[in-house]
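Input for the complex:
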Amino acid sequence: MLIDVQRRNWDRAFSSVERTNDSVNEQAFIQDWTGSNGALRSFSSLEGYDARPLHATDAEAQMRVRLHWSTPVGPMEDVRDFRLMHRGDKWKVVWDEVPVPNVPSQVIPVNYLRWDLVTGSAGEQWGSGGVDAPHVRIVSMNAVDSAEGAVVMGEVVNEDTVPAFVNVQSTLIDASGSAIDDESSFDKILHVLLPKQVSPYRIDFPHVNLNKVKNVHMDVKATLVPASSDPVIGVMNQKLDTDAQGRSVLHGELLNQSGQTVNIPHVIASFYDNNGKVVWVSDGYLQRALLPQESEPFAVEIPKSLAGKVQNFHVVVNQYSLERS
Amino acid sequence: MSSSINTVWKGHNLRRVLEHGTLAFLVGVLCLAAPAPAQDTDLRAPSSAVAGNAASIATTGSGTGTFYLVGPSIAVKREVTLGQDVQLSEKELQSAGTYLAIVCSGNCRSVGFFVAPAKPVNLTFLVHPSRAPVGQTNMVSGVALLFDEFRNLVLVPATVDFQLTAAGTAPATHRVATQNGVAWFHTNSGRSAGALQITASVNDVATRRVVQQVASDPCSLRIKGQRNAKGFIVETEPVRDCTGNPMPDGTIVTFTAKDSQGTGTVDAPIKKGIARAQMMGSGPVAISAASGVVMGNELRLGAQ
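Predicted:
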């Protein structure tokens, strides 16, 4: 089936599916693989997969499949457990994936707030124009070694009364005062920070060992941007747990409390130890769009070595909506 | 404010040439090359030249000569009759600063003089910041620079009045004398959010700027909640800073609810002074709120 999915040979792929109820149709099956509503899956393609059996008898089997996706935000891995039934001379996949919810027609009143930015005309007098950049502050910073290299992370707050577009940069300095490397938080930050909003940030330095680092220079840049306080996304039922593969994860559900589709939700979580220090920052993109008033599950991983230290966490949601691009 | 220096330019007198810089040196070289009758001449600079006002340079001798004027933003060459005044137009003297006048006739003579700025007609006023949280020490600062109509910085000491006016408070005035054309002040931000109008004035010239005074960090964030069909709704009391100013709409309040199902968080914006969030869950729950680095009280709701 997966070979046919890769080749987008949908009729053939769907013929390998054992339907569990009437809601499973070819259209829903295709939509599950190709995505809908401008979700990240719509822009992704299945590059490959690894499958291994978990359990097998003559009549049924269970397979764990690692799906390797190529996406605009980098390669992503999706792990799925498939149940197979022996039907005649063929194995069929029991398809019990939850289809994309049908959002009922409704009117959702939104009296959301928006900040517009008016730039002054070029002819204005010296000193008469100009609005200061928002005041943004790094409230915590921690540098750790990880398997991939050094990681600098922490939290940043918009202390101002206007929205800010924020980027955090970090430079690692060695004992001689020379810069080893400098990197930015890239997508591991909530770039648009509303007034008093706090965001985690994480800056990765691949192949750099902290033993060589004497100093870390931090720099936060903030610029005024037009912004909206909508959509409000609730992060519900967050819990630290161990998944089927034995990994430590924080899972929960995103609930879109507005009337606008969030095409690509992006979860960023900061994890604190018992002293309130940020010990890790994880992020993950949701493959499915977050429809109005609907919820979608998410899970972000924590390194095993840190899982025992984590006492608390804070999750923020970055959102990309096609209507606003 | 004016001064003059007379110099005789000779082909071999390089020391003096170098004192007047490269441009004057080139003028001197040009002068030596000019075939003109050998007549001794002398120059007398204008005693008190002012930017934008015509002036004249008296010359002695007879015959003709070549006149050069080199100033901060001008270089002029023309033929003059020696023994008569050389007229300098308003336009030629618009920039304040040191000028060098040279007349060459056989040998060259030069005189330096200073053109003072005219009276101030422009006041450039820079104020920082554009937004200031209330109740902060030395939060607001301003710098005023005086210029004449030709954008020359007016160096003559003058007194600038800085008047600060905010709604509900008596106006405050700072009188500051300019130093080298610049006057400045700094002051605390007020206690009430709103526009702070700052006017800088000298005689009849005035410039106005506005600083938006905004609420500071929230103070004593308090929440209340109640059950509803979807779970429970939680909201803040009107959120104010420690001097009683309402927090601006759009300020984010993070609600965190912990129950047996896990933790739920909602970043809710303040609307009309209150932040409100709908959360899920039917069991006993502990709810807290935070805005920026400020924490609120904890609220406990029993099971539905």
